[in-house]
Amino acid sequence: xxxxxxxxxxxxxxxxxxxxxxxxxxxxxxxxxxxxxxxxxxxxxxxxxxxxxxxxxxxxxxxxxxxxxxxxxxxxxxxxxxxxxxxxxxxxxxxxxxxxxxxxxxxxxxxxxxxxxxxxxxxxxxxxxxxxxxxxxxxxxxxxxxxxxxxxxxxxxxxxxxxxxxxxxxxxxxxxxxxxxxxxxxxxxxxxxxxxxxxxxxxxxxxxxxxxxxxxxxxxxxxxxxxxxxxxxxxxxxxxxxxxxxxxxxxxxxxxxxxxxxxxxxxxxxxxxxxxxxxxxxxxxxxxxxxxxxxxxxxxxxxxxxxxxxxxxxxxxxxxxxxxxxxxxxxxxxxxxxxxxxxxxxxxxxxxxxxxxxxxx
Length: 361
What we know:
The chain is of the alpha/beta class. Helix content is 37%, strand content 14%. Helix 6 links the parallel strand 5 and strand 6.
């Protein structure tokens, strides 16, 4: 089969590396230049041994951190692989999938790779990007097999509150579909780490150490799901790779052992960047937003008549600054701003965003 283009990913792998870009407001995750905080025990590096479905010690660390039984955890190489394994394990050709909008492109396109039929349910700007469970209920059909959402929402940073999470689980149970939640941004919320996953409920979760933990290079991801679902996902995984790379195990174990420290560092950077963005937004009357509940990204609305397709190109060419055009997330009237580079870069980049907005007014 011919795979469709994953347009955002192709863009994200090329444009931030553009040498003409001085201020990158497109990133959605940290890449820590100094990984020394995790202090891996390289004396434990091995090149062979049992590791057919991921390291048992890593699986145990994930289970302990999120309070789930270890048999409900499958190690995967990042959230992206978890998304693909989920749709491949659950869907048959013709099954309907209800996906939030705006949404990360992978969530929208992955079901089609295995013959799923995607329908959309909006969580739009007018409602502050909040998820309306009644809208999901009315959009269900007898063929709906999977409902796909994110928490925190990518691109707006809005969280699913406790009543919404409970209502989604109840709806999945009564209507007979599986709820899939991409939680890769969820640990940006204050308080102890958490998850919507509950054993015995029809829900699957994917996440990783990529975002607030800043360890994307490790590809340390996981699926949380019922053991019978994870067995199906593992059958798909057999066609993609045989074993996780053994030398990575000490790095991933050390990252989990220092996860609270890594998370605190990420939260501090995110909050500092968000404070800069909040202050900048308060001084603008021409651009609107729904303030995120946490995280590294926001999704402000451009002034009427300005498209993100035009804006991001002019911003890069005239101001050496990069933002993500909203058309990658279903809405050409928005841009996604990332705060991963720290408050100084965010402030300098926003100054240039404002300068271009003034010029285009």
